Each structure stands twice: as C-alpha cells, then as structure tokens.
C-alpha cells in the first residue's frame, strides 16, 4: 500500500510537521472524534496546507466507513418546497453531524430509475448506508437495498419479510388522540376531509381517525378531495349534512384553507361555530386566521432514531428486529372552539 | 496500482461478466454520461452484485474528480425551515444532478468553526469543490477557501481581491423595478419597512429602493424593525406620517403580515387604500389576504449558473473574472391597488 501520493506528500510528512504520530494523522481523517479539538484542528489544517491526499480505498478498508449517509431526497418545487421534508432534512443533518456523519443527497438523473442511482453510489463507494423517505407500499428501493444487503434505514415503514430498520410517526395513534381532544371538548359528530391517494401515511391517519371515533363513541362523515377547489365543495357537502358535524379534521394541513373557505361559505365561524384540525403543522398553519390546531411530527427525534439505527447496522452489523413508532405532538391553536 | 481489491473482484472480472471492455467499466464509475443508459445500467448492476469496489484514490487521480460538490448548508428551524434556502437546495440538487454531480451537505459540529469543517472535507478527499451561501462581508469561509486554492463558488458575492466565482440576484435592480411598478401605478410617496441587520442582501435591497425612489422622482420614508411586534409599530408610524405613504415596501416577506396588521390598525384596506409589496416570494406570500405582490428569485437559474461556474473551475482550472448578477421576477398579486 503506497504511503506516498502523487503530489509527493506522505502521511509521515504531515505527522512530522504536526509533531504527532502517523496514527494521529490517520485518526484526524478516519476517527476525528478520538482527538482533542486542538490536535484535530492543527492536523487537518496541515493536511490541507501540505496538500496531503489520503488513499480513499485504503482508508475505507482500514476504518470500514466513509462516514457518509446517502439520502434519496424527494423532489419538490423550488418555489414552494415541502416544508415537512425540508424540516426533516435539517433534522437529519443535525442528527448525523453530531455523530460525525455527513449527508450525501441522491437524486436519479432524468429518466433514471431510483435503484440505478442507488447502485451508482454503492458501486462508487460513496456512502456507508442509505436512508429512504416517502416510502410507498412495495417500494422497489427497499426491496433493492434489502436484496443487496447494503445498510439502510427508512423514514416510513417496510413490509413483512423485509429488514425492519424503520422509524415512523405513530400516525394512527396521533389521529386517534386528535379525535379524543375533540370528544373531550364535547364534539359528538365529526367530519374527515381526506384524499383519494393511497399513500401509507394517509391510510394510517384515516384508520386512526376511525378508531378514535369508535373509541370515543362518536359518529362521523367523510369526503375526499385532491385539489383546493374540490376540497371546498367537499367541505361544504360535509357541513351541509344533517346532522352537521361540529368539527372537521383535514388529513393534511394543505386542506385546511379549503375547510375554512367551506365554513365561511356555510356561514360558520371557524373557532366559534366549527372546530377545524389538521396534520403536519406546516409553517402556514400558525398563520391561518384563526391559527390551525394540528399535529406536529417529532422530526428531530425521528432523525436521531434513524441515525442511531444506521450506526448499529454499520458498526455492529445488526439490523433492528422491529420498526419504531414515535408519538406526535398536538399543537392546540384557536381553530378549536 | 492493484486492480484486484480486498474482496477479490477485479475490474476485469466485472468487464468479463458484462461483456464489455475494462474502459467501459471504468467509464460507468467515472464518466457515466459517456455510456448508453442500457450499458450503464447493466454494468452498475454487476458492479453492485459482484461487490466490486473501485480504488477511490486511483479513480480520483485518473478522472481528477469525485463528482461531488460540498455545500455548507445554513442552519434552520426544522419546525419552520427557511423556504428560500430549501428551494435553493432543491434547485441545486436538480442542477448538479443534470451534469452528474451530487451534493454533500457540510455542517460544522457543535462549536466547530466553519473553516475546520471545510478542512475536514478537503483533507478526506470528500469533494471536488465547495459551494457557499449566506455569505457575509469579510466571510472567513471565502477567505479560507481562496487562500487554500480549493475550487469554490458563492451564492452571494465575494469582496475585491478575492476570486469572483459568485452568482447573485441583482437585488438592487429588482427593488428599483418594484419601486418603478409602484410609480407606474401613480404612487408618489412610498414607505420602506426594513431591518437593522447589516446583511449584504438587505443593504443591496435598501440601496435599490432608494435608487428607484430617486430615479422615479418619488419621496420616501423608512422605518426599521427586527421582530413582528415592533414591525407593526414601525408600520403604523410610517402610515401615520403626513403626508402618509400610499405604498409600503417590506424588505423581506416576513414583515408583510406586520404591514397588513399596521394597515388594519390605521383603518386602511391593503390592496384598496394601501399598496404593500414584499421580497423573496415565500410560500405564504400567496396565502396572505390579500395575496402579496413580491419579488421571486430565479433559484434554478442561479443554481445552474453556480454549477456551470464550478465545472469551469474543476475541469478547466479557470476562475471567472467577474461575478454574475441575475434578474428577479416581480410576482404581481392583489396587495397592489
């Protein structure tokens, strides 16, 4: 294994200049957490100044890790980015940074299947593990990573027979709790405005809503909408029913403005005549008039748990036997009378 | 240079299995854009299945690049992420992905200076270039990268005597255009609600506002606020002046709700008695009542230009001699009478 690189600076040269051992220089690159901050600073500064370039493959073989988590970042609209997933990425950067890992963003080229983009990163030795989000039923990325035996974890859930290296919000419980809050405030007949999409997280929320209604001895009506206009119409249909629901739960915050508009059209004042509650606590939820009661995801706790699971897989080769469900937090605002 | 890796699979083994040349396997890793998609897919699949691990340092020496851009992602609140910077990151992932580059997110460990985090990435050979954003006057990260001669570019601007590898919104021009729009609608006396922070982008906007006022022969008043409460008070102070401004420009969209509240407190209807315009086109701008006229940044064009500049530096070793200013887009909504 050549210690001397193309530019002629060896690890011994750096060690001599820094007045430390070869092992200390190696630690500065492969295990920075083992060094005192002052030593680490001095050595990394010299590595940069002297232009020392470590042998990456040798480094990988020695330390078994590049300390990089590849994250398949979901596509969004730059002019209106998904605040939930932006917040999750921020939590992930913070959580992984605390244990010395960095996040590599992976996005397929136009027309390239996700699995091929994943293979490119693995083939190039560019990451120690993968993290997936927005995982659907029978997600081929999960099956692909599981088949290849490459370390991975999922924000979401994996199916039976697959590695259970996942962490998710307990959406059903959160939604049942939201219904419980409404029952506690005296509501007996409640409405759910939902979407026709069969995404697992929407399904868990709807199931939780129904379980909450049953559990608290309430009755309910449901309607479906996939765009703002039809959501207003669906909201009016629910509110115009007899008996009329005294509370509307929307399955995602984006439907709340439509629920507010439907209430106004039916002559109802949200927060007085009608309760409205949402899900996700998007930044605009607090800006609505009245501000929206909604369910906040514990993004940092989710990210911490995912990174912890990945480290167990990377360092110990142990995959968790069960997934992990974390509780949400109901943020009560003036949309509830 | 050893072709055979620890796990015993060589590049020749993969080439033989795929029925392609050694060079084609190398291209699949180092220059995927040179291969037909079907070939690339077949080879990367075999690389993964056979467990072939290329020699990263040899690869770097051959191709001169790891095809990774390190981005010092600014810290934000996971519960309320900065939509502008989330949108920029999305644009950056898309722009770099189209030329075969991936984004590595770099965040200093708690208490670690930014320069040390940068050095760690460079020392580890983890990126071909750096991209910085949220660059302040005399930003030490810029000076550090410039001193080290490492390829970098800046969303923002760099000072005199530093490499001019930057791309920015022409904020002054954009703000002057916004004032021009108000002048065209008959406004003669306008107000600016600004912040006390001396960030370059805020300074450029304020300068542009004043230049627009002078250029169109208007008069103006200004007030400063750094939190929502004092912003309402500052807005009321401006609106209570004699002569009263007929239009309020806020230097950042976050001040718009305060301007709306100030108008209401003064008995003015925004969009009828008073014009309000903002800057950044944050997602909530369109949700305000009335929806806010504001300035949208061309995030994808900025990201494309930055990635283009980085490739010129990485591939040709040529640093642009001047920075690049791109125009914004005024999004006219009902907040203007």
UniProtKB/TrEMBL annotation, chains A, B:
Answer yes or no on keyword Cell membrane.
Answer: no
Q: HTH cro/C1-type domain: which residues?
A: 3-53
Every copy of the HTH lacI-type domain together lies at 9-63
**Pfam families linked:** LacI, Peripla_BP_3
- Gene3D superfamilies on file: 3.40.50.2300, lambda repressor-like DNA-binding domains
Q: Name one GO molecular function term.
A: DNA-binding transcription factor activity
Q: Which UniProt keywords apply?
A: DNA-binding, Transcription, Transcription regulation
Protein name according to UniProt:
DNA-binding LacI/PurR family transcriptional regulator
Q: Which organism is it from?
A: Nonomuraea soli
Lineage summary: Bacteria, Bacillati, Actinomycetota, Actinomycetes, Streptosporangiales
